[in-house]
Amino acid sequence: EFSCIIDLYTSLLKRGAAIETYFEHEMFWTDMGTKEDYLKLHSELLKKRIIQDEFENTGDGGLFMGDNVSLVDDFIWKDWCVIGSGAKVGRNVTIERSVVWENAIISDNSHICDDIVIS
């Protein structure tokens, strides 16, 4: 669903609300308002161009999996890939440069590329 924070700010200002700001010096931030931005962020995290605690120890140079992921031995990942907790990956599946959300199900014989799979 499309959402724009600027619309909220405009509405608040029209009602006379004050908007305050806070600048965080120690934290990384990026816009991920499009599919391309969202995938680019994950690529940068997994290629360790951006360091965040939960991505520091991926161990597989671009594969990050949550807990209780169900997959079989013939699973192939290319370049980088995120698979959320509880996801189920069928047989003969290839995932490249994609994010699979928690509890998503990927059917047998699927090739997922440059995409986001939601549950």
Summing up helix and strand content along with how strands pair, one would put the structural category as alpha/beta
For the termini, the CA-CA separation is 15 Å
Q: Quick one: biggest sheet? A: 5 strands, parallel
Give the SSE string: HHEEEEEEE
| Low-confidence residue ranges | 55-59
Per DSSP, the total helix count is 2
The rounded Rg comes to: 18 Å
Average pLDDT level: 86
DSSP, total strands:
7
Rough outline: elongated
What is the beta-strand fraction? 15-25%
The percent of residues in helical segments reads 10-25%
Overview of this protein structure:
The chain is of the alpha/beta class and 119 residues long. The protein is built from two helices and seven strands; from the N terminus they run ααβββββββ. The chain has helices at residues 5-14, 35-46; strands at 63-65, 76-83, 88-89, 94-100, 105-106, 111-113, 116-117.
Keywords:
single chain; 119 residues; 5-stranded parallel β-sheet; two-stranded parallel sheet
Secondary structure elements and pairings:
Layout: H1 5-14, H2 35-46, E1 63-65, E2 76-83, E3 88-89, E4 94-100, E5 105-106, E6 111-113, E7 116-117
Parallel strand pairs: 1-2, 2-4, 3-5, 4-6, 4-7
Brief sketch in words of this structure:
The protein contains 2 helices and 7 strands. It is α/β, with parallel strands linked by helices and 119 residues long.
